[in-house]
Hints:
The chain is about 25% helix and about 25% strand. It is an alpha/beta fold. A hairpin with a 5-residue loop joins strand 7 (about 160-165) and strand 8 (about 170-175).
Amino acid sequence: MRKVIAAVYLTLDGVMENPTWTGPYFNDELARAQHALLFASEALLLGRVTYEGFAAAWPDVTDEQGFADRMNTMPKFVASRTLAAATWHATLLAGDAPAAVAALRQQPGQNLLLYGSGQLADTLRQHNLIDEYRLMVFPVVRGRGQRFFREGSAPTDFVLTDSQRTSTGVSLLTYHPAA
């Protein structure tokens, strides 16, 4: 059975929206962590907004470490109620996104990596479909913006299973839902 891993960049106040604030803090340590996470995954899960942003930017990116090649060639599953078609090695999840993701989890293979995609992540969390949370917390406060754990979300307990800190002050936190 595959695991769904949610990976998200967050500010100290929980904002995930438009993470242009990551630039000054991104370094080789964070790049290695992201590389390991991507290469331990078989496919990406994306909401429409994240998919559209990634599909517009990533196809033109190259690198020597193979991250861009992996990102550009791996399968993507996109949850959207409005897209009629998808490109960039993407498949639209038909119908009910939680049911489609539950079916994907039952297939053999590596992890399904959910990048950003706040609305999809919130929906999947409500259906207990996220197995692991990789939160990269940056030492910055935005004050406003879309938060990863949204107001009105059902209370959820988590267990911290790993923590690291980069030299630029980014906390890499791994949580699993409590039993």
